[in-house]
Amino acid sequence: MNSEINFDKSPDGLIPVVIQDAETGKILMLGYMNRAAYDKTVAENIVTFFSRSKQRLWTKGETSNNFLHVQTILVDCDGDTILIKSTPAGPTCHTGADTCFDEVNQGKGQFLNYLQGIIHDRKVNPSEKSYTTSLFELGVNKIAQKVGEEAVELVIEAKDDNDDLFKGEAADLLFHFLVLLEHKNMDLDDIVAVLQSRHKKQ
């Protein structure tokens, strides 16, 4: 968290909480928390609000099982608004919609940023059980070799008609490419910036 939460700013002790999908970046809903709801959320890693209509703590999904699993909690610069990045267990809205703003919760490309964070963590906090860590320990030559091998395998699968195998090889290539970027101290945004620059010249 980047600021202390100040529940006393509001006369009723409630502050707004924005819920965002950690993978897609979509805004799922807006709710309110008091200190007790916040403490319960942190303790259980499942979002609990204070329901203004029920006048009690209300865990999202307590009847539908569509829980909001907490990934990250951020606090704004004034300490009076919370942003929770979560993984929804199902539709967020009581209407059955993906979000309370009636948006389709798609766009899994945002997950790549999440995956980059995990890859970075495996580099700075090595784990003996981690395949990613083992790649970093082998060095750039081995990582680059793996990218080349996965690219060849993708080309081979592209010539066949097995979509599942093709998607699997594409995922393997993308993963090892992200590992190579991390080893080179680069970010996927750096590559996107190059593509954007080329696009502007067209």
TrEMBL record:
Domain of life the protein comes from: Bacteria
Gene3D superfamilies referenced in this protein's UniProt entry, alphabetically: MazG-like, Phosphoribosyl-AMP cyclohydrolase
Region ranges (Phosphoribosyl-ATP pyrophosphohydrolase): 112-202
Listed GO MF terms: phosphoribosyl-AMP cyclohydrolase activity; phosphoribosyl-ATP diphosphatase activity
PANTHER family, sorted: HISTIDINE BIOSYNTHESIS BIFUNCTIONAL PROTEIN (PTHR42945), HISTIDINE BIOSYNTHESIS BIFUNCTIONAL PROTEIN HISIE (PTHR42945:SF9)
Catalytic activity: 1-(5-phospho-beta-D-ribosyl)-ATP + H2O = 1-(5-phospho-beta-D-ribosyl)-5'-AMP + diphosphate + H(+); 1-(5-phospho-beta-D-ribosyl)-5'-AMP + H2O = 1-(5-phospho-beta-D-ribosyl)-5-[(5-phospho-beta-D-ribosylamino)methylideneamino]imidazole-4-carboxamide
Subcellular location: Cytoplasm
Region (Phosphoribosyl-AMP cyclohydrolase): 1-111
Pfam family, any one: PRA-PH
Chief location bin: cytoplasm
UniProt pathway: Amino-acid biosynthesis; L-histidine biosynthesis; L-histidine from 5-phospho-alpha-D-ribose 1-diphosphate: step 2/9; Amino-acid biosynthesis; L-histidine biosynthesis; L-histidine from 5-phospho-alpha-D-ribose 1-diphosphate: step 3/9
Family of this protein: In the C-terminal section; belongs to the PRA-PH family. In the N-terminal section; belongs to the PRA-CH family.
EC number(s) stated in the UniProt entry for this protein: 3.5.4.19, 3.6.1.31
Keywords: Amino-acid biosynthesis, ATP-binding, Cytoplasm, Histidine biosynthesis, Hydrolase, Multifunctional enzyme, Nucleotide-binding
Protein name: Histidine biosynthesis bifunctional protein HisIE
Biological source species: Spirosoma flavum
Domain named Phosphoribosyl-AMP cyclohydrolase: residues: 29-101
Coiled coil location: none
